[in-house]
Design brief:
Radius of gyration: 17 Å
Order of helices and strands: HHHHHHH
Helix content: over 70%
Shape: globular
Distance between the termini: 27 Å
Number of strands: 0
């Protein structure tokens, strides 16, 4: 509803999270995480990393759009990168997640664990 109010001509924005493709992709990501959890029992560190990401998932949801456009603009400057869509998308995802994670770590360091400040950005 908010997207229709703020951007009346942008119906795609208003329904982007309701698309069948978005739902199927989300289900696939969850299925992969479950499969990894069941098969990687001997690998150390992955549980801690997934737990850390999960605890900050709302922060990533809020912040990724701030970074995504800048990352894509930077990658488009590399000749031929956008033509190779799998590489372009993979690089975009990896760089965006890395920058958002660095932002979360930096913000947590700056506020020194104050829960009220962490809640404002979706970390706690």
């Amino acid at each position: 509803a908010a997207a229709f109010v703020w951007f009346p001509g942008a119906a795609d924005l208003a329904i982007s999270q309701l698309k069948l493709s978005s739902m199927i992709t989300s289900l696939c990501v969850c299925a992969i995480a479950i499969a990894l959890a069941r098969t990687w029992t001997r690998v150390s560190g992955w549980r801690r990393m997934l737990s850390w990401l999960g605890a900050r998932s709302f922060y990533f949801y809020l912040s990724h759009m701030l970074v995504l456009g800048v990352v894509q603009a930077g990658l488009r400057r590399i000749p031929g990168m956008e033509a190779m869509q799998p590489a372009f998308v993979s690089a975009t995802v990896i760089i965006t997640i890395t920058l958002c994670a660095a932002g979360a770590i930096g913000f947590e360091f700056l506020v020194k664990g104050r829960r009220n400040a962490l809640r404002w950005v979706g970390i706690a």
